Amino acid sequence: AQKITQTQPGMFVQEKEAVTLDCTYDTSDQSYGLFWYKQPSSGEMIFLIYQGSYDEQNATEGRYSLNFQKARKSANLVISASQLGDSAMYFCAMREFSGSNYQLIWGAGTKLIIKP
Amino acid sequence: DARVTQTPRHKVTEMGQEVTMRCQPILGHNTVFWYRQTMMQGLELLAYFRNRAPLDDSGMPKDRFSAEMPDATLATLKIQPSEPRDSAVYFCASSDRPGRDQETQYFGPGTRLLVL
Questions:
Q1: How far is the CA of B96 from the CAs of B24, B50, B105, B112, in angstroms?
Q2: Burial of A77 (0-12, 13-18, 19+ CB in 10 A)
Q3: Alpha-carbon distance A69 to nearest alpha carbon in chain B (angstroms)
Q4: CB B13 within 8 A of CB B31
């Protein structure tokens, strides 16, 4: 069973509009962390934002925020005031804290294209 | 600005040849991951190390792949003999705060491997 689901293979958004990238996850752990990474066409994987399962508030990092809805098991990435440079693949990932496992479980990604 | 470095950035080789990829983790990071990314399979974890010891290499084809950390500043991934199906982008990542909740993996730029 897929543990991380990103339902949007691709999205087109007009520049300066806000963007929401969907991510749902499946875990029976009580403690886990959720991550978003950006992969531009140049290929590098860039860490954007982190949300812990026990965090009371939604994480924010500049124009990035995470809409964390624990009961729905969703961790959507919101990009405010999109820019052309936001065009990239975006990956959602989860780490379960049970045991000593350091692995991230990855979603398939969403390709975001910002239109001028 | 601390970064993970990888060499070479690009490698074209012929089937049957040995390929060695190198990674220098961020100074002070003691957990190192090797990933492979292809269009078909997405991002796959091949192996990871903590304090230079292999913790999990179950994602790696054992007959031809090997991963080592000769010292804390160098991780290597070798393929011998290489095959066309090994063509992919290979990422190294290192993480801080091992065992802590907000452990974040930081990725290198990747090695693009093409096996002819």
A1: 14, 11, 7, 25
A2: buried
A3: 18
A4: no
Residue whose token pair is 């959602």? A92
B96 has a chain A CB within 8 A of its CB: no
CA distance A105 to chain B (A): 9
Chain A within 8 Å of B43 (Cβ-Cβ)?
yes
Answer positive or negative: Cα dihedral of B49, A91, A39, A37: negative
Residue B4, token pair as written in the block? 């993970």
Q: Which residues of A10-19 are buried (b: 16+ CB within 10 A; e: fewer)?
A: eeebeeeeeb
| Cβ proximity of B51 and B60 under 8 Å | no
Q: Is residue A99 less than 8 Å (CB to CB) from chain B? A: no
CA pseudo-torsion sign A39, A43, A45, A46: negative
A82/chain B closest Cα distance in angstroms? 24
Q: Return per-residue pLDDT of chain B as tens, 116 residues.
A: 789 999 999 999 999 999 999 999 999 998 999 999 998 888 999 999 988 999 888 889 889 999 999 999 999 999 999 999 999 999 999 997 666 667 789 999 999 999 99
User: Counting every residue, how long is chain A?
Assistant: 116
Residue B87: how many CB atoms within 10 A of its CB? 17
Closest CA to A70 of A1, A18, A23, A20: A23
The reply to whether residue A46 touches residue B107, judged by beta carbons under 8 angstroms, is: yes
